[in-house]
Amino acid sequence: MSLLGSGEAAVIHYALHHEVGIVCIDEKKGRRIARAVDLEVVGTLGLLLEAKKLGLLEAIAPVVERLCAFGIWFDRQLLERVLTFTKEPLLPKQDS
């Protein structure tokens, strides 16, 4: 069994020691552990949805495209659901 990534571990540690009730973690293992210690979890796409809802972003798709260009990977089905929900055009499929 592999250990929790240093980024996820740092986020969870900080949240627990500074009474932060919600964390942004995308990795499945990190999300599971965060929930196990009673933290609310949101992912990157959830943050982008909230930013759009608050008027901080005009569109999610361009941000996702930039993140993908830096090597960030998103589950295709989840991404399509988010873009459909926000009535944004679907992005072209990325080569794996």
Summarize the structure.
This protein is mainly alpha-helical.
Write out key terms for the chains shown.
single chain; 6% strand; 2 domains; two-stranded parallel ribbon; 96 residues; 5 helices; mainly alpha
Provide a descriptive summary of the structure in words.
About 50% of the residues lie in helices and about 5% in strands. It has about 100 residues and is mostly helical. It has a two-stranded parallel sheet with strand order 1-2. The longest helix is centred in the N-terminal third of the chain and has 12 residues, at about 5-15. It folds into 2 domains: about 5-40, no CATH class; about 45-85, no CATH class. It is globular, with a radius of gyration of 15 Å. It has helices at about 5-15, 30-35, 45-55, 60-70, 75-85; strands at about 20-25, 40. It starts with 5 loop residues before the first helix and ends in an 11-residue tail after the last helix.
Question: What is the fold's blueprint, element by element?
Answer:
Layout: H1 6-17, E1 22-24, H2 28-36, E2 40-42, H3 44-53, H4 61-69, H5 76-85
Parallel strand pairs: 1-2
Summarize the main sheet: 2 strands, parallel
Question: What are the secondary-structure elements, in order, as H or E?
Answer: HEHEHHH
Helix content: 40-55%
Tally of alpha and pi helices: 5
Which stretches are low in confidence, meaning pLDDT under 50 for 5 or more residues running?
none
Could you give the order of strands across the largest sheet? 1-2
Distance between the termini: 25 Å
Please, how many domains?
Answer: 2
**Rg, nearest Å:** 15 Å
Structural class: mainly alpha
In total, the number of strands is: 2
Strand content: 5-15%
Mean pLDDT: 92
Shape: globular
